[in-house]
Design goal:
The complex is a heterodimer of chains A (about 500) and B (about 250). Helix content of chain A is about 75%, strand content about 0%. Chain A is mainly alpha-helical. The chains are: A mainly alpha (about 500), B mainly alpha (about 250).
């Protein structure tokens, strides 16, 4: 039994936003103050967790003091911690932005409790070590996300988010069916115990493979993997800006994280090249189709939503390379590159959506063709869009540049050169859709008077975009250390 | 967006026929999927692993503070899941509230229904209390007890009280969060005293579980009744401009 003080951040990351949600519900008049305080202490807990994992390696805590098989485990390894840190910093930025974004009392009262519940679910999902507990977290995440997305209140938003809710429920139920298979066959829900049981019982391959198919298809629906992405663009494009940022940057990423976790930990003996190739093929289709639709999108937020479909696609391209690469520094680099791309996209997309929301409130619309002169009216926001855009394209020095570079390097090294073609095409399309926005925004109009016009709304977007480009690109070395990996050159 | 290629429509009879064929194909495919899944599930059942965990769970019941194994799983072994399930219920209700104010209630009931309500509602509340207590050693517990309280709320609303017998908004909000709040504070308190989050000392387990379950019962009852009301509490304006309610 480890010292409670050591594993405290593990619990606090989940419990603090939960408590915040309760007080924001019970004291609706002070919802904003409760929300901001909760955001600060939760982000602090996430930093404490990162430091603890940095110093001691993987943290593991079995709740209730029972045998691991009987109880629920929480765990934080390098992958989980990197995503928790990203998610909590992004969520802090979103909270600061949201404190000024919502104006009427009813929206404020609805937003904060649901947002903090979503935050608790995100941290709970990243830190869970139990398959059924993950299902509960998926439910909490899905319900709060759909309710938040519908806060815009118009017909399109409600229809899109009702569809999102139903699709999400289908995804979780499919996942749960897979969990039932695994529990029946192996008698455990703990990820560690199941991984050992699956590796030991090769005669149950059919059951394990069926469970994997069910669970990964359910989650692919939630992660909006092509062609299961149909629900995402309308839901994300019609939500209020801070919610769009959270949905696109964090919620979709959580479903992908779970796929990765299952792929690497639970189903390692079952996964094969065929499954990896199928997922990567769908991923390539997502890269090309998502980028193309983003290029053709008439509205800024719709563009950002389709770009999410494409960016999630890139993450799936890593799977066949992970299968083909033997254990060692090359595989470690590949894994770190995967994380780096996921984290960079989290910061960049959140920054992009927050900035797009500001453009929308300022101009009264977000039709790309009519955005002339935005650079003059909102210089800091336009700069944030440009920075986030360069991270979406993968320009140096952004984190996704390093990620894509390592991805292509390994694709050539393992002889799977065709993915390079997909990556290059996707990058070219991304450059096209980002520059399409920027060329409109930088119209020939008078020089701006002030760089920043509304600090509370502009600074979070700018900081998030800046992190995705400068911090993650120039200082990505610590990620390797956090993951406990050997690969050197970063 | 309208697609220009849809201008020439196929004639309805053929479309209906194709629709039927498609449905048939879908049904056959789903049936095949079902058969495959059942066969694989049978394979999993033959592995016979699940009972081993049940044996372990039953063996530990005396240390959980309750005698009913289901309550032991829900409130002790996997208490963290239950805590989050209560949060899911809260999120669902907050989602309902975010969509708009509550629709108007039903008209006042006649004397016969009103008489029955005045009998049934107290009975439901007493039965809820019994369910809560009995959960310690036999089937029952907070969710069942909360469901009975929720049912009492539904009956009260059907009989004409637009608020389903619930208190004002401020009290309602506190009651709603009560379950998760007590649960979390007990968990954190135990962590503070060095036992670990939601790790009950065996001597106190029974009373802590009863405390959590009582709070959860109230919260579940209020959440279910408020979900049936179907919208944000409207404190002083019972006359809602929207068409009269048809909640299911």
């Amino acid at each position: 039994m480890p010292e409670p003080a050591m594993t405290a951040p593990l619990v606090l990351c989940i419990v603090l936003p939960l408590l915040g949600a309760l007080f924001a519900t019970a004291l609706p008049g002070r919802a904003v103050a409760v929300g901001i305080v909760t955001a600060l202490v939760t982000a602090a807990a996430a930093v404490a967790l990162t430091l603890a994992v940095w110093e001691q390696g993987t943290l593991h805590l079995v709740l209730g003091g029972w045998e691991p098989a009987l109880a629920i485990a929480l765990r934080a390894d390098g992958i989980a911690t990197a995503l928790v840190l990203m998610a909590n910093l992004v969520a802090l930025g979103i909270s600061v932005y949201a404190s000024g974004y919502f104006q009427d009392a009813i929206r404020i009262r609805s937003f904060w409790p649901l947002w903090l519940l979503l935050w608790a679910a995100l941290n709970g999902l990243f830190l869970a070590g139990d398959l059924f507990n993950l299902y509960v977290m998926l439910e909490l995440l899905g319900i709060s996300a759909a309710a938040l997305g519908a806060l815009t209140g118009n017909r399109e938003a409600i229809a899109a988010n009702l569809r999102y809710l139903l699709v999400g429920l289908l995804g979780s139920i499919t996942y749960l069916l897979g969990v039932a298979f695994l529990y029946t066959a192996h008698g455990s829900l703990d990820i560690g115990i199941l991984a050992a049981a699956i590796a030991a019982n090769e005669q149950l391959f059919a059951v394990d493979a069926a469970a994997m198919t069910l669970m990964i298809s359910g989650l692919a629906l939630k992660a909006a993997l092509f062609p299961l992405h149909f629900w995402l663009p309308p839901a994300h494009a019609n939500a209020p800006a801070p919610v769009s940022a959270a949905l696109s940057a964090l919620v979709v990423k959580a479903a992908f994280y779970l796929i990765l976790r299952l792929w690497l930990d639970v189903f390692a003996p079952v996964t094969g090249m065929a499954a990896a190739m199928l997922l990567a093929l769908l991923g390539s289709a997502a890269v090309l189709w998502g980028s193309w639709r983003a290029l053709r999108a008439a509205r800024l937020k719709l563009l950002a939503a389709y770009s999410t479909v494409a960016q999630i696609g890139y993450l799936f391209l890593f799977l066949p390379l992970l299968v083909a690469t033997p254990e060692g520094p090359a595989r470690d680099n590949l894994l770190a590159a995967l994380l780096l791309m996921a984290v960079t996209h989290g910061f960049a997309k959140a920054g992009f959506f927050l900035a797009a929301g500001l453009v929308q409130t300022n101009a009264g619309h977000d039709r790309i063709d009519e955005l002339g002169g935005t650079a003059q009216r909102l210089p800091a926001t336009t700069f944030a869009i440009a920075l986030a855009g360069s991270a979406l394209i993968g320009l140096p020095p952004s984190g996704s540049f390093i990620g894509k570079w390592l991805l292509m390097q390994q694709a050539i090294a393992t002889g799977q050169w065709w993915w390079v073609v997909v990556i290059l095409a996707g990058t070219a399309l991304a450059a096209a859709y980002v520059f399409r926005v920027l060329s409109r925004a930088f119209g020939l109009e008078p020089t701006p008077l002030r760089f920043i016009t509304d600090p509370r709304a502009e600074v979070p977007a700018l900081v998030l975009a800046l992190v995705s480009v400068a911090v993650l690109g120039l200082a990505s070395g610590p990620l390797w250390t956090l993951l406990g990996l050997s690969g050197a050159d970063a | 967006m309208t697609d220009p290629t849809f201008a020439t429509r196929p004639d309805p009879a053929r479309a209906a026929e194709r629709d039927r064929d498609l449905k048939l194909l879908l049904a056959v495919l789903l049936a095949l999927l079902g058969v495959t899944m059942t066969a694989i599930y049978a394979l999993a059942l033959n592995a016979g692993a699940a009972p081993r965990l049940a044996d372990l769970a039953l063996a530990r019941v005396p240390q959980t503070g309750v005698d009913n194994p289901v309550t032991a799983v829900l409130l002790n072994y996997r208490a963290y899941d239950t805590l989050m399930e209560l949060a899911v219920l809260l999120a669902a209700l907050l989602g309902i509230w975010s969509l708009g104010p509550a629709p108007a209630g039903f008209q006042r009931s006649g004397p016969v229904l009103a008489g029955m309500v005045s009998w049934v509602v107290p009975l439901l509340i007493v039965a809820g209390g019994y369910m809560l207590w009995v959960g310690g050693y036999a089937p029952g517990g907070a969710f069942q007890a909360g469901a009975l309280l929720g049912a009492a709320g539904v009956i009260v609303r059907l009989a004409g009280d637009p608020q389903a017998g619930l208190p004002g908004e401020a009290a309602q909000r506190w009651l709603l969060v009560l379950g998760v709040l007590v649960f979390t504070l007990v968990g954190l308190g135990l962590m503070l005293f060095g036992a670990g989050f939601l790790t009950y000392p065996p001597k106190l387990a029974k009373w802590l579980i009863l405390l959590i379950e009582s709070a959860a019962t109230l919260a579940i009852g209020v959440a279910l009744a408020a979900a049936y009301v179907g919208g944000r509490p409207t404190a002083t304006s019972p006359l809602d401009p929207r068409p009269s309610a048809q909640p299911k």
